[in-house]
Design the sequence.
């Protein structure tokens, strides 16, 4: 069974600063995908960034970047230049070849003005 | 708007009643997924379809739950004889069969069973 662990229930960041969210996962697969999703309060879940396990290069999307450590089974998300609109619950998700997403418990990010 | 849509957005029902939710995926997506999310937790997989075929069901999906996708387009999720433990957000997602295969989520249906 695959499990995804997010060890930080809550993180707080000052506007314009950087915050890093941690995620570890357990798998015996070699080919899989990893995702970070953002879920604002009472709003729908949207994709932030994705990483293919076969790619060594870390994915980046504007102010969002990941640090993918395959051997350590670690997949952290860095939010740079944090904005008030970044406040949300962030979920790390793992997807093997059977297409099911397994999610972590989430990290609530608060941005201080 | 061509995103995933779900209806209704909110549903309050009494224990023992049946409820049905609808999901309309992104039009060219032939994979459709249902997840359940309880308060403060990440979503949990329930079932998924490729076109009209239901390919996998989670153990979370008891006999009271049934899902269909009759024409390979929209899907329905029915819960019979609802229980208070069924209260949750029910999320639908869709993806292409091949290519990026990223799952795109709808806004969810929040169910409250009294």
Sequence:
């Amino acid at each position: 069974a695959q499990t995804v662990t997010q060890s930080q229930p809550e993180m707080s960041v000052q506007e314009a600063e950087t915050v890093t969210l941690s995620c570890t996962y357990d798998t015996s697969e070699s080919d899989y995908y990893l995702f970070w999703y953002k879920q604002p309060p009472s709003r729908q879940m949207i994709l932030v960034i994705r990483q293919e396990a076969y790619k060594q290069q870390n994915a980046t999307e504007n102010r969002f970047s990941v640090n993918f450590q395959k051997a350590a089974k670690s997949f952290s998300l860095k939010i740079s230049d944090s904005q008030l609109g970044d406040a949300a619950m962030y979920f790390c998700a793992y997807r093997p070849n059977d297409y099911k997403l397994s999610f972590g418990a989430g990290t609530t990010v608060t941005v201080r003005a | 708007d061509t995103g995933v849509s779900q209806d209704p957005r909110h549903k309050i029902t009494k224990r023992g009643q049946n409820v049905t939710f609808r999901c309309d995926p992104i039009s060219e997506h032939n994979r459709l997924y249902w997840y359940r999310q309880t308060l403060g937790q990440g979503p949990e997989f329930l079932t998924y379809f490729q076109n009209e075929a239901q390919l996998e069901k989670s153990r979370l999906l008891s006999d009271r739950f049934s899902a269909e996708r009759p024409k390979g387009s929209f899907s329905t999720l029915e819960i019979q004889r609802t229980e208070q433990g069924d209260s949750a957000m029910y999320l639908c997602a869709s993806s292409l069969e091949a290519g990026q295969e990223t799952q795109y989520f709808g806004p969810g249906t929040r169910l409250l069973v009294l």
Notes: The longest strand of chain A covers residues 88-95.
